[in-house]
């Protein structure tokens, strides 16, 4: 197949060629970024929380005074713990995929010169670590005397466990046990390493930071009350949650039950990612609609060109061109147009990604999405042009003589 005649023909139809190439470029830019966003959302929705979600629920109370906190903790722990099916009750501040609490920046030195990042602090009273079902892969659990009272939002000198992801970020390639970090004047010492523990809002600061989490051993008290972790058999958990929400009115009539936050962790996951599912579905619709419009544009243009070139095609058939030659001509022509659009579309894809990074704090578009998008558009172009090209190949040689 000679490429030069194809370029000559395209130069005679500059405007139509340019419009189709621009449509392909726009499709390439949107396709790459939309697929990246969809994959990012799907990965986030299936993230491993690190806790035994099927067995856990949270009861959250508000509207009480700090002076009531100790008595409230005692009443709620005893009342909920006596309910049928409840295996344990622990005081916590929040759970993965729940309401975001205890988010703060940390540093690797007391002066705050070496910033370590923004992490989520999960405060747990005695029994909370075991109730969560966290897997400690190195080090040890906090000792009973290491559950210290809270001075601000955490104990002033805390024994903590960190996730493997956070440890690798703070001390790459180094054993994190015994390491220290600070949050303003608050001091933390690492005694254990957790395999997985995601933040309350794992997508809030990007997928790379989803497991930047710290478990702090804390003693329930005036500044640590109101949120309770219930553990039960997965088959019994829905009933336990319903009974607990009803029983709170009698156990703690002086507190207000936060309805949205008092649910099973599985329900919290569903609620947390509801918007992500909607966004992924919407983006799938946008991608399909854009590909359909692009395909229709290619079909329309190719059909118009076939109609215009019927006599030319007939002459080529009359002088020896085969149906395969005609088919190859239109497919090659389409491939060149789509390739030009893809080249421009890759630049637009990067520009669109930079804008999303700036205004929506999204991660950088991986390079491998570009060849994937190119392959999809090349395949789409060849499929779209196939019908008109087959009609062109079916033009008989006699067409060349009908208008002579």
From TrEMBL:
Transmembrane segments: 15-39, 278-306, 335-356, 368-390
Keywords carried by this UniProt record: Cell membrane, Membrane, Transmembrane, Transmembrane helix
Compartment annotation: Cell membrane
Domain annotation ABC3 transporter permease C-terminal: ranges: 286-396
Keyword Repressor: no
Annotated GO MF terms: transmembrane transporter activity
GO cellular component, one term: plasma membrane
Membrane-protein topology: Multi-pass membrane protein
Pfam families (alphabetical): FtsX
PANTHER family in the cross-refs: ABC TRANSPORTER PERMEASE YTRF, MEMBRANE COMPONENT OF TRANSPORTER-RELATED
Family to which this protein belongs: Belongs to the ABC-4 integral membrane protein family.
Protein name: ABC3 transporter permease C-terminal domain-containing protein
Taxonomy of the source species: Bacteria, Pseudomonadati, Pseudomonadota, Gammaproteobacteria, Lysobacterales
